[in-house]
Amino acid sequence: MSHPGPALSILALLADEQELAGLIRLAALSGHVVHPVGSIQECREALLAERHDVVISDRPQLGDRPRPKATGSHLAPAGAQAVTPAPQFWLVCPSDATPEQGRAALAGGFDEVLPAGSQDWALPSRLAALSRLRAAERTAAAIEAENRLIRDTIQTGVIIVDANTLTIIDANRTASELLAVPGDRLLGRGCKDLLCSDPGEGCPVLNGRSNYCGSPSLIRRDDGSEIPVLKTVVPVDLGGRACLFDCFVDVSEQKRAELRLQETLDELEAVFESSLVGIMVLQNRILTKVNRRLCDMFGYAPEELIGDGPQKLHLSHEKFVEFGERYYWRLAEHEICEVEYPLRHRSGRPVWCLFSGKALAPPNLAKGAVWIITDITARKRQELELNEAKEHLQRVLDTAATAVFTVDVDLTITSINRAFTEITGYAEEEVLGRKCSLLNGDGCRERCPLFDLSRSEPIQEKVCTMRAKDGRQLFVRKNAQVLWDDYGRATAGIESFVDITELVTARELAEGSTRAKAEFLANMSHEIRTPMNGIVGLVELLSATSLDVDQAEYCRRVSNSADGLLAIINDVLDISKIEAGKLQLDTGEFRLRRLVEDAVEGVAAGAARKRLELVCSLAPDLPDRRRGDGARLRQVLVNLIGNAVKFTPAGEVSVRVDGLRDPGHGDEHSEWIRCEVRDTGIGIPEDKLLHLFEPFTQADASTTRRFGGTGLGLAIVKQLVGLMGGRIGAHRLAEAGSCFWVAVPLALADAGLEIPPCRATSVRRALVVDDNATSRSALMELLNAWNVETATAAGGDEALAMLRQAADEGRSPELVLVDEHMPGLDGEQLGRRILATGLTPCPRLVMLSDLGVVPDTGRLRQAGFSERLAKPVRGEALCALLSSLPLPCERAGVEGPPAAAAPADASAGVGACAAAPGELAGHRVLVVEDNATNRLVATKLLRNLGIESVTAVDGLDGLAKLRDGTFDLVLMDVQMPEMDGLEACRRIRAGEPGIADPRIPIVALTAHAMTGDREICLAAGMDDYLTKPITLARLREVLVRRLSRAKTGV
After folding, report:
1. CA distances from 567 to 13, 635, 639, 985 (A)
2. Which one of 208, 571, 767, 965 is at 20 to 30 Å from 174 when CA atoms are compared?
3. Is the pLDDT of residue 963 over 90?
4. According to the model, what pLDDT value does residue 201 have?
5. Regarding the domain with residue range 279-375, which homologous superfamily does it belong to in the CATH classification?
6. If you classify domain 917-1048 with CATH, what class do you get?
7. Answer CATH for 9-146 from 2.60.40.1230, 3.30.420.40, 3.40.50.2300, 3.20.20.70
8. In the CATH scheme, what architecture does the domain 765-884 have?
9. How far does the chain reach from its first CA to its final CA, in angstroms?
10. By the 8 A CB rule, do 700 and 754 touch?
11. Which spans in 896-980 are helix H?
12. Are 601 and 874 in contact (CB under 8 A)?
C-alpha cells in the first residue's frame, strides 16, 4: 500500500509481540521501516544515535522526558543550520483504557493515543498523515535554504524587525558584516540605535514621519562609526506577525568617489581660474565657460561673454567668419589646431593671440570645443622691432667692406651681405640654403667651432683660404663665433672676413725682401766679423807681450774701437732677429744679485772716467736664485745703465731692484722684479717719451752727434722685455734727469727662496762715510740686513765726531767704510786722522775706490787702511770681507798689503771659466779655417793655453788632416770654399773612410750670429758653437767643457 509522502522510520517499544508483528507487517506494506527496541533506555539511545520520525510504545513512562523541539524555520538567523523535526510519540493503550487515561497520556507528552489492536484500521491513516507532514516540512526547509542562500549572497543588508517590539528577529550576512556584529548577536537587539537616524520617538516608518524608499541614511556600529547607506523599509506580515523588512546598501565608496570627484573638479576650477593663459569653452559656437585671464585679456566680465558668441572678440565680422572657416572647423578632424591670430580688446585695440584648440568629442563639434589663448602682443611687437633692426643691420652690413654671413647649426648659410657677394662672386640666391662648404675653405675647417660645438672657441683674426665662384683662391682674415641661447645650446654661427689676397701677396714680397735683408746682414756680419776676429785676437795677443806705455794705450784704444764696432753689429743683428721673429729666450738658473751687480760693474769704468757716482742696491729680502734668460736680462740692464752713464755729464746713476708682488701674473713660486735706473743727466722732454723705444730713434737729433749710438738700444730692450712678459717705461724726474724702469716676472729656483745669510762674526757695528747719500743708504741697508748695526756720515769731520762719541759710550764700530773721494777730508786724510785719535780698540778701515783704479798699497797701509773695495760695492765682496775680518786691532797699522776686492764666485757671469791653462796642456786640436789671419789668431790662442794645433785651409783639407793624424778636438769654420764646415762635419759623422774617430768633438767657428745658426750647426753634427771674434776666455771655456766631456764620455 503506497502513501503520498516519504517512507517513515518507526522506533517500536511494544511488549505485545503480536502488536509488534502487526506493526511490522503494516509498515512493510506501506514502505515504512520499523526498528524494534526492548527497553526505554535502549529507545532513548536509539533516538540519540539516528533520526526517527515516530516512536510507537505501550509504555506510558516513555512520555515523562524532555523532547527536543523543532527550531528550523524561515526566520533562522544567518548561518544557523535547519533542525530536523522532532519525532512524534504515539502511545498504544489497552483496549479497556478510559478516555481519562487517554487525555492523561496526551498531557504526559504523547502526541497520539492508539487503542490496542488498531493496526488494521487506525494506524495506516495516522502513518499516512505523518508521512504527508514530513513531506511538507522538507519542502518548506528547501525553500527556506534557498531563500537564505539568496539573502546571504546579495550585497544588500537585510534585517527583519518585529514591528511591535522593534527588535531584530533576522539578519543576513551582509547586514552582519556592515554592522560588524555576528548574526546571532544581532537577534533580539533594538533597531533604533543601529538602523535608524531619526531622532524622534518610536519608529519613523510606523509613525509616518519617513518613507524610506532608496533614501540616504546612516547606520551605526557599536564603535560609534557611521556608514552611509541607501535604505528601503517595507512593512510586511510574516505568518500573522507584523514585521518591518529593512534593506540597505553601503554607499561609502560612492561617497568617497563623489568627494574625490568634487575635489578634482575644485582643483580643475582653480587651475582654470588661475591659469596664465586665457581659456574659453564653446558649445555650438556659444561661450559656455571662460576664465578670469581671458576676461582680463579682452576687458570683459564673465557674464558679458558667457552665453554669447565669440564674434565680439574679433576685429570684424569678416575676421570672425575667416577664423571659423580656416581654423574652427579643423577641430572636427581630430586635430589640435594652433594658430596666431589677432582679436580685439573691448577698447578696440588689437590683441595678438596664440590659439591652441581641440574638440571635446571629435568630430561632433556640437558637444563642445576648448580654446587656450595666449597674449603674444608683446612678442609680436618685439618681432616687428627685431625685423626692423635686422633690416637696419642688413643695410649697415651691406655698406661694410667686410664680408659677413651666418649659418645655422647644420652649417647652412642663412644670410649674407653685399661685401660677401662682391668678394666671392656668389649672388644671394646662389648660396642661401646651401652648406658653407660651398666656399671650400682651407686651413680653417678643422678649427672652426661650428664643426665641434662641444669645444667651440671663437676664431679671431684667422688667416685662411677660400674659393671664389670663378675658382680663384682667396686669402682672407676671418672671425667666427657660435651664438648660444640662454640654455647653453648653439643656435647659429656668424662669420666675417676681409679679402687680404693683395696683402698676402705684398707680404710674401716683403718677407722675401726681409729674408734677403737677413741673408745680407748675415753675410755682412760674417764678412765684418772675420777680419774683426783677426783684429781682436791679434790685439789680445799683442797685449800679452812687452809694450811701452804708448803701445799699451794704442792696444787699448784698438780694443775699445773693436768692441764698439761689435756692439753696433750686435745691435743691428738683434733688431733684425726681432723683426724676423726669430729672437728666442734661453731659460736657465741664475743669481739675481750677481747678475745685476755684473751689469753695473760692466759700465763702472765709464762712470769712473766721468767721475759719476754709480750706486747699486737690491731689496735685502729679495729671493736671489731665479729662473729666466739671465743673459738677455743682463743685456737690458747694461743698456739702460750704459745709457744713463752716457747721458749724465755729472752727478750720479743709481740702480735699484725691488720685488713687485703679483701685478697680475704671479703665483707662490713666481715673483716680479722692478729695476729702476735713475740719473741726474740731461733728462728727456715729455713729448719725446712716446717715441723713445722706437728703432733708430733718440730724444734729439743732436744726441747722436753729441753722444753717439745707433738709436737701436732701447728698441731692442723693449722687445726683449716684451718677450720676457714684462713691461718697460720712463719718465722725467722732477729735480733733474730721468728714470727708466723695467718690470719682469722671474720664476723662483727650487733651492733659492731665501738669501744665504752673511756671517759677520767679528763685526757688530759699522760706520759708512760717503758724501753721496744714495751710496750711504745702499750700504747701510745691506749691512743692516746682515744684522750689522750701521751708522752713516756725510764727511770726514762728521765721521770723526761720531767715532769719538761712540768710543765714549763704549759702542765703537768694528768696521769703517770710507769713500776715497770726498770734499773736505778725502778718504786717505780721514784714515790718517782716525789713526791720530788713538782710538782703542781701533776700527778696521776699508777704502772704497773706483773700479779699475790701481791703489797705492803702501800709502793705504800708512793711512791705516787694511782692505779696499771697488765701487759700486758688490754684495758678495762685502760679505766675503765681513766673514774674513779678524777681531779689531789694538793699535793703528796692519802688517801686509791691503786685500784686493773680494772676488765674486768663480761661476758668476757669462763665459767665466775656472780652468787654468795647465789643465788643457797636452791636447792636440785641428783648426780648419780659410782665413790666414784667423788661423794665426787661433793657433796663438791655443798655444797660450798649452795646446798643440794643426791647421787646414778648408773642409777637404781638414778631412785629409784627420785621416793623417790624431786629434782631441776640431775647431771648424762654417763658411769656407771648396767644402764648408757643415758638409765636412756631416761626412765625419757619417764615418768618412780613414778617419779613426767619427765622434771626435767638433766646435763651430762662425761669423754668423743670426738666430738659427747654432741650430744649423748642431743639426749638422757639431758639438758646440763659437761666434767670432773669439776671445781667450770664451775659447778656454768651450775647450774645457768639450774636452772634459770627451774624457769622461759624457
Report:
1. 162, 11, 11, 31
2. 208
3. yes
4. 63
5. PAS domain (3.30.450.20)
6. alpha beta
7. 3.40.50.2300
8. 3-Layer(aba) Sandwich (3.40)
9. 145
10. no
11. 932-944, 955-964
12. yes
